[in-house]
Amino acid sequence: MKQRVFSGARPTGRQHIGNYLGAIRNYVALQEQYDCIYCVVDIHALTSLEETDRLQESIHEMMLDWLAAGLDPQRSILFVQSHVPEVMELHTLLSMVTPLGWLLRVPTFKEKARMQPHNVNYGLVGYPVLMTADIVLYKAEVVPVGEDQLPHLELAREIARRFNSIFGPTFPEPQSKLTSFPLVLGLNGAQKMGKTYDNYIELAATPEETSKLVMTAVTDPARRYRSDLGHPEVCNVFNLHHFFSSARVDEIAVECRSAGIGCVDCKKLLAQGINSELEGFRERRAAFAARPQCVAEALSGGSRQAQVIAKETLAEVKEKMGLVQRSV
Ligand code: TYM
Question: What is the tens place of the pLDDT at every residue in 278-320?
């Protein structure tokens, strides 16, 4: 039997190249060898979303990106988290075996609490428990994510281990799977690329928008004049060349070090590389966008399939926790 993969992403709207390089590429590749389930985690999004009126639109936009990137509803289960409400029940049950101290130590909780001091809600503390419920509800063994999610995965393993030790072997301990670009920095070169930091390039941006954004990217800070010699190893733009200009990356490094090219030239090359890599993606996305019902169809089929598995696991958990009579 194939191993099961699960991953999820918050519906923040159109996905950016950080999501793509850090996670989506793996989601697509893993479809070849695994039994894959990918989830749009709308409940998680509520922990920080202030404008819920745009949630449905964001789910749609994100799904267009997933389909255009190559997620195939014939091969993978694609669904929206809240459409399989069993996850919320499992979240509550898992919260009983999760010490509060574990959750208060999670770095992302501390960061969120710092970023939204006006809204340090209970859902933020329970965020990794809900994430664990997402994964173990499907007994997933492999979880493709970017590096920023590793503390959550560590906690998911601890919660699964604790549940298994109290109630008997039930859940596999999920292993994370990173791509070769597990942490993509944003255009400011300071934080990870993300919607929160407004330092991102959307996959679906037009070639013109992409070029304009790339021109704002921070490069080697020591290179102030065109004649200064560059240090590609500290430059985020150069880092992105590894993926988007892979055939020319060595040549670009030599040219940067010798000041043969300046940062503006280097960024123009990067914009070309991104636009040519994403050309096919953008065409496919436009084709899916012209048939908006394909999103609804993929999601309704996906949630039906996911729910079959979810119900089975939840029944097992309830029985193990003594909530229903043990079957003989
Ligand atoms: P989210 O929505 O923030 O991101 C979705 C995926 O994209 C990856 N990612 C990145 N990778 C590299 N560089 C970046 N700059 C970058 N930005 C985002 C993320 O690591 C993630 O893999 N908590 C999760 C969603 C979630 C989940 C789950 C994931 C809920 N339940 C169960 C796995 C399993 C999140 O907020 O991802």
Answer: 999 999 999 999 999 999 999 999 999 999 999 999 999 999 9
161's tokens: 């281990």
Cβ neighbours of residue 208 closer than 8 Å, sequence gap 6 or more = none
The total of structural domains in the chain comes to: 2
Instruction: Ligand 1: list residues with CB < 6 Å.
Output: 6-10, 18-19, 22-23, 41, 44, 131, 134-135, 143, 145-146, 148-149, 152, 182-184, 192-194
**Structural domain of residue 126, as residue ranges?**
4-184+292-320
- Does 221 lie in the same domain as 106? no
- 170 and 281 within one domain: no
What's the gap in Å between 194 CA and the centre of ligand 1? 10
CA 182 to ligand 1: nearest atom: 12
Q: For the full predicted model, state whether its pTM sits above 0.90.
A: yes
pLDDT tens-digit profile of 133-143? 999 999 999 99
Q: Is residue 151 located within the same domain as residue 273?
A: no
Closest CA to 70 of 30, 109, 106: 30
- The mean pLDDT value of the chain amounts to 96
H/E run at residue 128: helix 122-137
